[in-house]
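Weekly sync, protein design subgroup
Attendees: M.S., D.O., the rotation student, P.L. (late)

Item 1: inverse folding check
M.S. brought a backbone from last month's batch and wanted to see whether the design step gives back something sensible before we order anything. D.O. pointed out we never logged the input encoding, so this time it goes straight into the notes. C-alpha cells as presented (346 positions):
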C-alpha cells in the first residue's frame, strides 16, 4: 500500500449464524427506514455489538468542491453519538487510501496508527483500527473505521463479519435513497416529505399563474405515541397505513396525501378554497373515527387538523406554517377537531 501502513485484509470463514443475524436486522430496517441516519446508527450498533468494536467512526467523503467532510462517531452500543467537520485537506491517509482503492485494511501497531490515522492516534491509546469502504455501485461514499482501544486486535472472523455488515449497510442506504428519489414513504406508501414539498411548490406555482384557489391541511394523530409505547412500532405502522388508505379513499383523486413525518400527514387540495377544504377535513375526521383504535379507549382514530388557503406571496414554508399554526390551535382546544388558519390567528 502506497503512503499508508497496515495489513491488507482478505475473506475468511465466519460463524454463519452471527453473520446472518446482523444482516437480517439491517435488511428488515431497510424496508422501513426513511433516512440515512437511521441506517448508520443501526450499522454502528451491529458493529459495536457483534464484531466488538469500542467505537465506530464514519468518515463521509465529500466532493472535490467540498472544503470540509462530516465525521460521525458512535459509542456506547450506538446510543452515544458525536459529529464534527474535518477539513478535506486533512483527510487521514488511511481514509484516502481506502477511498481510492475500495479496499480495506487493519492497523494494529503504533507506527501504523501514526501513519494511517494520525488524528485518531492522537486521541489516546489504540489497539486496532479496521478501515472498511462503504460503497454504492463501485463508488466509495464513506469509510467506516472500527476502533478498539483496550480489547485485542480484530481477529479474522471479526474482520469478515464487519465487512459483510458494512456491505449490507450500503445496500440498505441505496434502497432508502431510491425510495426518497421516487418520492415514496417507506411505511405507508404515500408521498414522502420531499415529494410533498416538491408537489406543493408546483401547485403554488400553478395557483399563482392561474389565480385558482389552493388549500392545504396538516393532520396530527392524537395520542399516537401511546400505540407505539403499549403495542410496539409494528402496531403503530399498521395504524399509519390504515390512516393513509382511509385518507386516499376520502379525498378527491387529484388531491395528494403525504406523510409529513412521524404521525403527521399533509393533504394538498388544488382548486379548493378554505371553506371547502375545511369541510373535506371534517369528513376525513369522520372517516378516521370508523377505523380500529389499537389499544386506546374510545372509538376510531382521533386526529387534529389545521387548514390554510394559499395567498399571493406565500411560499411552501409559509403555507405549511399557516397549517401548523392552525393545527396547534386544534390541539390546544382539545384535539379531534379542524381549525382554519384564519381562526388560529386570534
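Designed sequence read out in the meeting:
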Amino acid at each position: 500500500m502506497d503512503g499508508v501502513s497496515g495489513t491488507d485484509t482478505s475473506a475468511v470463514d465466519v460463524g454463519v449464524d452471527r453473520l446472518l443475524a446482523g444482516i437480517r436486522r439491517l435488511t428488515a430496517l431497510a424496508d422501513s427506514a426513511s433516512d440515512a441516519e437511521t441506517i448508520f446508527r443501526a450499522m454502528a450498533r451491529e458493529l459495536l455489538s457483534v464484531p466488538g468494536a469500542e467505537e465506530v467512526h464514519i468518515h463521509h467523503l465529500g466532493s472535490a468542491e467540498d472544503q470540509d467532510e462530516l465525521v460521525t462517531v458512535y459509542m456506547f452500543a450506538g446510543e452515544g453519538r458525536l459529529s464534527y467537520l474535518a477539513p478535506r485537506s486533512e483527510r487521514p491517509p488511511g481514509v484516502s487510501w481506502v477511498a481510492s482503492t475500495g479496499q480495506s485494511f487493519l492497523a494494529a501497531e503504533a507506527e501504523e496508527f501514526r501513519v494511517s490515522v494520525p488524528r485518531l492516534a492522537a486521541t489516546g491509546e489504540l489497539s486496532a483500527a479496521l478501515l472498511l469502504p462503504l460503497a454504492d455501485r463501485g463508488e466509495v461514499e464513506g469509510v467506516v473505521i472500527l476502533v478498539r482501544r483496550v480489547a485485542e486486535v480484530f481477529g479474522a472472523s471479526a474482520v469478515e463479519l464487519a465487512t459483510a455488515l458494512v456491505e449490507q449497510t450500503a445496500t440498505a442506504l441505496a434502497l432508502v435513497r431510491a425510495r426518497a428519489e421516487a418520492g415514496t414513504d417507506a411505511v405507508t406508501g404515500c408521498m414522502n416529505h420531499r415529494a410533498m414539498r416538491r408537489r406543493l411548490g408546483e401547485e403554488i406555482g400553478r395557483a399563482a399563474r392561474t389565480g385558482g384557489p389552493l388549500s392545504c391541511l396538516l393532520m396530527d394523530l392524537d395520542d399516537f405515541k401511546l400505540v407505539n409505547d403499549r403495542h410496539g412500532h409494528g402496531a403503530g405502522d399498521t395504524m399509519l397505513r390504515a390512516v393513509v388508505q382511509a385518507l386516499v379513499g376520502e379525498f378527491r383523486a387529484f388531491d395528494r396525501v403525504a406523510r409529513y413525518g412521524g404521525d403527521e400527514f399533509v393533504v394538498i387540495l388544488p382548486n379548493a378554497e378554505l371553506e371547502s377544504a375545511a369541510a373535506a377535513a371534517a369528513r376525513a375526521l369522520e372517516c378516521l373515527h370508523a377505523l380500529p383504535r389499537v389499544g386506546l379507549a374510545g372509538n376510531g382514530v382521533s386526529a387534529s387538523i389545521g387548514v390554510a388557503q394559499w395567498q399571493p406571496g406565500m411560499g411552501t414554508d409559509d403555507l405549511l406554517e399557516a397549517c401548523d399554526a392552525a393545527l396547534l390551535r386544534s390541539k390546544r382546544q382539545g384535539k379531534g377537531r379542524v381549525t382554519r388558519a384564519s381562526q388560529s390567528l386570534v
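Discussion: Residues 156-182 form the longest helix (27 residues). Residues 7-181 form a domain with the Beta-Lactamase fold (CATH 3.30.450.40).
Action: P.L. to compare against the previous round before Friday.
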